[in-house]
Amino acid sequence: MSDGGGFAAGSPPPSAQARGPAFLRDLGPNVLVLGAVSLLTDIASEMIYPLLPLFLTTVLGAGPAALGAVEGLAESTAALVKLAAGRHSDRVRRRKPLIVVGYGLAAVARPLVAVATSAGLVAAIRFTDRVGKGLRGAPRDALITDSVPPSLRGRAFGLQRSLDHAGALVGPLVAAGLLAGFGLSLRWVFALAVVPGVLGVLLVVWRVREAGCVQQEEPDFARRGGGALGALGPLPHGPLRRYLMVLLLFTLGNSSDAFLLLRASDLGLPAAQLPLLWAFFHLVKTAGALPAGALSDRLDRRRLIIAGWAVYALVYLGFARATAAWHAWALFAAYGLYYALTEGAEKALLADLAPREARGTAFGWHAFSLGVGALPASLIFGALWQGAGPVAAFGLGAALAGASSLLLWRLVPAPRVAAGG
Description:
By secondary structure, this protein is an all-alpha fold. The chain has helices at about 15, 30-45, 50-60, 65-90, 95-110, 120-145, 155-180, 185-190, 195-205, 220-225, 240-250, 260-265, 275-295, 300-320, 325-355, 360-370, 375-390, 390-410.
């Protein structure tokens, strides 16, 4: 069961946790274990992801528009599944089963890219992989929220994102070592990604515990009706709805990061350096995610998000005008800063705005708001690049980031969170 704040009564007492490192103090075992699982899962994922654009365009002969379709379909699929999964975890008052199934499905599906012979098969595999991500995403984020008091939400999500990015740092290095050091083909590297993925699943089964998610009554926004998608969970209202609408607008200009890797390749970066560039990018995210998340516990979270979106706009303008391979390294460093500033703060702000008894549903709607824009964002970006060039595509992303920043400040008030959460 949980106490009034929704975090686990079975977690170690603060006096026991205080003996650990200062940045881990009071976070509890669920946050630490789920962070470790994110580490392993992203090692598996990022052994494949930075090489996927190259695999699609050279081995399978697909173009930027096909890449946009594959990535947009994958992310939109994950969003729809997250919405249903988050709602289900609230209704049954259990998060762990969906987390286990989600990680397990992705661990099995992801390495099947090794045997793909067409862009269509890659799309089907990515679709399955993202279904797994969708099943685990909202319940995992809700479980993290259930497991800590409100004053530690930014730090908890910052730690989870930091370990996630650490895995994304290690994964490309492993891939580069297998390609350059052992002379393996892209397909063999993809196949070996099964190992860390399965280890992550075993860790969830062994160490993650329920934290007593609460659903004592229907949340206020449930009583107001859910509209056409009500079966998947009630549609939020008020500040939470406005926040999700702003995130959707930003997402329409936030296409797949695969395009940034493709742009780096266009700028002359050799194929063997693409995994290293991706690893460097995640090094920046790893270093920044935890301190930025913790900072959001002390400041207005909106300020960090807006600062991150401003960096994003500048990065996209930079990619539009870049002319040399070294520009890609500098821009990816700044792009990592954008992620560090926003990821933990965005989820912590959502947790602040969401009713305690409907956190899974709220995180599901958050994922849906991001994912429903992923497909059109990537399709539009790919079509603009192919038809008008990269300057037009990256310029649109920068413009939407600027508009979203203004709307976030004007439409979403800073939440007041009670000490009990």
